[in-house]
Amino acid sequence: MPTEQTTGTTNLVSNIIAHVTTLVRKEMELARAELGENLNGAATAVGVIVAGVVFTLVGLNVIAAALVAALTAAGIHPFWSAVIVGGVALVAALIMIKGGMSKLKASSLAPTRTTENVRRDVSAIRETTNG
Questions:
Q1: Cβ–Cβ under 8 Å, residues 109 and 35
Q2: What are phi and psi of 3, to 5 degrees?
Q3: Contact 34/114 with Cβ under 8 angstroms?
Q4: What phi and psi values does residue 111 have, to the nearest 5 degrees?
Q5: Degrees (nearest 5) of the Cα angle 87, 90, 92?
Q6: For 88-108, how does the pLDDT look when each residue is reduced to its tens digit (9 = 90+)?
């Protein structure tokens, strides 16, 4: 026949297990939500990269011929006019691509809020069990 103390201990252990299970489930939900938010940010960064590439191509196709012609009319050899215009367009493209890539760092995708919550939870559990 169970005593009052073993029943109380059983209830306490059951409550602890239930709370820890709920805590783990909630942290997993938070991690899933935060990861989704971070992936949306990554998708936006990819969009910026693609826009930079498209802008570069459009700019090269629409303006390059006019700039080459203008530089040639100013007395620069047509070959060097084309090199100058192409070089400027490539520099602009690299700046845009680098800006988008900086937003795709792996650390920006990590669920930092969830990690911090789990650290606090572990700390609180340690304090409770050690105190």
A1: yes
A2: -85, 170
A3: yes
A4: -80, 80
A5: 110
A6: 989 988 998 998 888 777 666
- The three-class DSSP label of residue 131 is coil
d(CA 48, CA 93): 12
d(CA 72, CA 76): 5
Burial (CB < 10 A; 0-12, 13-18, 19+), residue 46, is: middle
**64, 81 contact by CB (below 8 A):** no
Which pair of structure tokens corresponds to residue 5? 């103390």
Q: What confidence tier does 11 reach under pLDDT thresholds 50, 70, 90?
A: confident
pLDDT at residue 5, rounded to an integer = 63
* CA atoms of 127 and 125, how far apart (whole Å): 5
CA separation, residue 123 to residues 10, 21, 90 (Å): 24, 17, 52
Q: Give backbone dihedrals phi and psi of 14, rounded to 5 degrees, phi first.
A: -60, -45
